[in-house]
Amino acid sequence: MFKIQTLNNISVAGLERLPRDKYEIASEMQNPDAILLRSFKMHGMDIPASLKAVGRAGAGVNNIPVDEMSARGIPVFNAPGANANAVKELVVAGMLLACRNICQGWDFARNLEGDDEAIHKQAEAGKKNFGGFELPGRTLGVIGLGAIGAQVANTALNLGMKVIGYDPGITVEGAWLLSSAVEKAHSVDDLLARADFVTFHVPLVDTTRNMINAERLKMMRDNVVILNFARDGIVDDQALSAAIKDGKVYAYVCDFTNGLLKNHERVITLPHLGASTGEAEDNCAIMVADQVSDYLENGNIHNSVNFPEVMMPRGDGYRIGIVNSNVPNMVGQISTVMANAGLNLIDLLNKSRGAIAYTLADVESEIPAAVISGIEAIDGVLKVKVF
Predict the structure, then answer these.
(1) What CA–CA distance (Å, rounded) separates 336 from 170?
(2) Which end of the chain, C or N, has fewer beta carbons within 10 A?
(3) CA distances from 318 to 34, 80, 311 (A)
(4) Which residue intervals of the chain are DSSP H helices?
(5) Domain range spanning residue 179?
(6) Is the same domain home to 250 and 365?
(7) Contact of 140 with 199, CB cutoff 8 Å
(8) 93 and 220 belong to one structural domain
């Protein structure tokens, strides 16, 4: 029986992927095998020695101490792309809200007073203050071309926009998702200088913090619309506010709010609604539950932010997984321990990612406790699990 602790409310659709004859699930639990969470901040949390996996029902993992998990030999899973459609829709909505001045017009209309005739007259007289512009022919710059960025780019093309994108870390899989009509920018600065709209779909790391700052705002087109549905901190709010007041930026639409921005005339702030749809929550929970259960039951690793991708079909043999520091001769030492115990290998897969390496091995006979302890005794081995 595997024990799963939930630190947030996880969609029932995801929890149903964990059958009750194999899994015990609770928000309060001693010695869990895995933790499932959404936005709960794990930094500073006492990590139980029993923990084998962490699953984030979403894409970002800033709320999880990933380095600490790696040092303990614990994979952290997330759900990239599961909420992509929800965020994409909100980005498109944000562009329309900004360029058509919808929020300002709505605020004006809902505060009109008098009888119907007076309201109609005021509305007709005031609508000239909320004229906007259309999307076709405008250029959208997309920074970050993962699952969300690719969907945003493709949708913008379908709306008649020109699209340029920048992502130095784009994967082959990501490139396949992207329309060939998306033009490649040579750098962030190259993209910013050519875009009428800019949207971000990147994590918050040292290289993306305050990516939009006073210096870069100066090089952008006049009346640019900036959208941030990625992470708070990517845009320097003080510099952005000043650029709006100077007439450089037409509008800013973001999924984060604060005292500076919430009442700003040309800013639309939302309370982190990017993935707040029932469909997205279900998709994220299902994806992460499947990944965590496949790891706990079979040792397979898919969509981990700190471990290599390791997927090996399950045969009739007995399986062992070893997490270790990525140093020379680890596979040789592991194989020697198994060979000395008379274990015959059926299949073995070893991959590494940064400082972490992971070996999955199938053998013909049951794995004795002495083999497990022998592998655990190898210098650099972080965690050993029999599946």
Answers:
(1) 39
(2) N
(3) 22, 31, 16
(4) 12-15, 66-71, 84-99, 102-110, 116-126, 147-158, 172-177, 188-194, 214-219, 237-245, 278-298, 330-340, 369-376
(5) 84-98+133-269
(6) no
(7) yes
(8) yes
Q: Is the pLDDT of residue 285 over 90?
A: yes
- Please count the structural domains in the chain: 3
Q: What are 260's two structure tokens?
A: 């500076």
Contacts of 325 (CB under 8 A, 6+ apart): 355, 356, 357, 380, 382
Residue 342 within any structural domain of the chain: yes
The whole-chain average pLDDT of the chain stands at: 95
Question: Does residue 128 form part of some domain?
Answer: no
Decide: 14 and 288 in contact? Cβ < 8 Å. yes
Digit-coded pLDDT (tens) for 182-220 = 999 999 999 999 999 999 999 888 999 999 999 999 999
Q: Are residues 46 and 166 in the same domain?
A: no
Which one, of 163, 168, 150, 172, lies nearest residue 198 by Cα? 163
Are 128 and 196 spatial neighbours (Cβ–Cβ below 8 Å)? no
Rounded Cα gap, residues 191 and 176, in angstroms: 21
CA distance 211 to 308: 29
Q: Say if CB 163 and CB 181 are below 8 A apart.
A: yes
Nearest-angstrom CA–CA distance, 200 and 60: 14
> Cβ atoms within 10 A of the Cβ of 255, count?
23
Whether residues 94 and 225 fall in one domain? yes
**Considering the entire predicted model, what is its pTM?**
0.81
Helix (H) or strand (E) holding 385: strand 381-386
Residues 212 and 281 in one domain: no
